[in-house]
Every structure is written in structure tokens, then in C-alpha cells.
Description:
The protein is mainly α. It is 77% helix and 0% strand. It has one domain.
Amino acid sequence: MRATIIVIALALCAGAATAQPPAGRQGPRMSPEERQQMMEQNRAKRSAELREALSLSDSVAVRVDSVNSKYDAQQQALMRPESRGGEREAMRTQMENIQKAREAEVKVLLTEEQRAKYDKWLADQQQQRRDRGRGRGNR
């Protein structure tokens, strides 16, 4: 009898634990306006980082910003709810293709020395994303 009560209690606790929303997704979702504002802030931050890391001139920095804006718009279009009907893996492949095209177009604007710095900057960014992802656990 006592063992049965313990088993039922554990089952209820396990059910309650799995009913919780995933970590990092608690609270209300961002509105489209808030999401757009966040994207613009991230773009500005990325532009400033690139300008400093690659020692970009003003004219090259403006052209790099233009390239980034173009590809950000393409990635945002894939993220819209009406675009998400497909498989997750297909969307991931499209995002990777957009990212590769962005990188190729940016590299055309850079000197050889800046391209080497850009490759290092990209590798650092990728490592930072991996490090952030390690604390999330399996989803």
C-alpha cells in the first residue's frame, strides 16, 4: 500500500515536471515590433563589432551593413509563421545557405587581411553560440 502511494506520488511529480514550459521560453512572446527592434539592435551590435574587428573604412562598413540587412531580411522571412509550414531540417538548410551567401558577399568587399580576420570572427561567433547552447540541455 505504502509503495503504491509512493509510485503514484512520483508519477504525479514527473507529470507536473514535464508540463512545465521549456527553460528560456517562459513569459509572453515578443510582439513583431519588439522582435524587429531586437533584430535591429543585434544588427547594429554586429556592425560595430565587425567594424572594429576588421578595421573597416566607413565606405566598406556601409556596404557590409547593406549586405547584412539584405540577408537578415531573407532569414526573417523564413522565420515568419506562414513560412514555417515546412520541415525544420529544410528551414535549417535554407538558413545555412543564406548565411553562406552572406559570408561570400561580405568577403568580396574585404581585403585579404580582413578576410582572414572575418573568418576568425565567424569562428569565434560560432563558438560563442555553441557555448550558450551547452547550458540549455536537450530539447
